[in-house]
């Protein structure tokens, strides 16, 4: 083997790159300096964040308390008879006033035990009467069994009237011992988020509220609902309680990388002085995402709800803008060194990526099967890349030759047989004989012999080639194998190579398609007609001939019978005739129509032959 010069091993190139990029050590120094600055101010930010979380908790607690007080007041007035929730005047006059100042309440309504609903929609400022929501109906039945009681907060669910997720505040209404229904005030989650100012803070912090594993307030909640067809224009109606209560995103579905990796949060201990100053329920955690530390501060609160609510905020060190001046000088020094390292890394990356990109383009073309489009890979100065390019080019060239052989070979033998021979490990070139039950289709052109006597021989060949091209496509699309072109006739067989349990249907469908073809198209300006004979039975398929001159063919009485049935079309005035064995093999034998009891040539007993009616032709 000739010695190759001017090429380098991947190991040598990588080693040189690592040595040249050692300046990244400055970047690490910068990183640790930044971490020191973060640690110096982290406690201050946690204190500020905990205060904001406490404020959010108070807002939610106040919201629930006011809503519950309103429910309890209405229930008391209903019990006294001072308010009649079944009267239209309550919903047109009193209900709007009761919730007018509550922007987070989307609606208030009454669901009765019989499944009807009446309520006031604050968004449209209209009274609505309809069939009760599925989840509201379940709550109505549950509270009926529990009897009079205090207002309860419901887990977030989808409310069909408001067409969005809501938090419900529910209370049963009774008057003189009679159950009137359940009164529910609907707190919309977007409204709650507005009250809590749940948006990305200008200082880089992101606030969130969860119930269990679900998000009820987050800057991305509104967009998530729109993307997932939970918007005001949605026609979504829950068909089950599970659907109604599964409309909120889980913490790993909102698209927040910090929340989605909650399992990786690592708690860290607060300083003694900070622990003493803060509420004991405050928990601090951190996580590294894309090389950046993210800090999370949470506070769990059971409150008045049946499911635990967690309030939280997360932020990254970039929020410590005040500390930026402290590290500016260090950053400028390190940036110069890092810039040099990046330039060197870019040069090395370009040097490596150029041959890899060429190789990637070539392999994609190869995967798509476009061998003609696969580019020739150029030599490379890197030893391993050059060897890979050379091997790839040789492989593509070999496959080009194989594909060309397959194309040429497939023009003279059925494609399935050609593929079988090319995949065979033997050079004998034979297809082993196979005895099987198969369906034979014999197709012959009507009156073509007399027409050929009057036409130019070249015109005859052109007409036949045009007809055979379309007929071959129809036959092979239905898994048929053409074993012979006999003048103007075609002999095709189904199930002789491979397994096709519907071979009788495939042959009949082919015959119908051929009839429709010749009745709908001219070939080189000539109108043709054909007759088809179909028969199913035992035959032998395999290679026949001398050792150096072979052909694939089928033999058997069922093959001869197909040819005789084709000829009998002339006598019976039909286009398609099939034997009784074929008719019995059809998935729907009723398609076949009995034509006649006939005595086929070479037979001692008569047998029924069948035809088929083709829509639009007969």
Automatic annotation (TrEMBL):
<keyword id="KW-1133">Transmembrane helix</keyword>
<dbReference type="Pfam" id="PF00211">
    <property type="entry name" value="Guanylate_cyc"/>
</dbReference>
<feature type="domain" description="Guanylate cyclase">
    <location>
        <begin position="439"/>
        <end position="566"/>
    </location>
</feature>
<dbReference type="GO" id="GO:0004016">
    <property type="term" value="F:adenylate cyclase activity"/>
</dbReference>
<dbReference type="InterPro" id="IPR029787">
    <property type="entry name" value="Nucleotide_cyclase"/>
</dbReference>
<keyword id="KW-0472">Membrane</keyword>
<dbReference type="InterPro" id="IPR050697">
    <property type="entry name" value="Adenylyl/Guanylyl_Cyclase_3/4"/>
</dbReference>
<dbReference type="GO" id="GO:0016020">
    <property type="term" value="C:membrane"/>
</dbReference>
<dbReference type="Pfam" id="PF00672">
    <property type="entry name" value="HAMP"/>
</dbReference>
<dbReference type="GO" id="GO:0035556">
    <property type="term" value="P:intracellular signal transduction"/>
</dbReference>
<dbReference type="GO" id="GO:0006171">
    <property type="term" value="P:cAMP biosynthetic process"/>
</dbReference>
<feature type="domain" description="HAMP">
    <location>
        <begin position="350"/>
        <end position="404"/>
    </location>
</feature>
<dbReference type="InterPro" id="IPR003660">
    <property type="entry name" value="HAMP_dom"/>
</dbReference>
<feature type="transmembrane region" description="Helical">
    <location>
        <begin position="330"/>
        <end position="352"/>
    </location>
</feature>
<keyword id="KW-0812">Transmembrane</keyword>
<protein>
    <recommendedName>
        <fullName>Guanylate cyclase</fullName>
    </recommendedName>
</protein>
<dbReference type="InterPro" id="IPR001054">
    <property type="entry name" value="A/G_cyclase"/>
</dbReference>
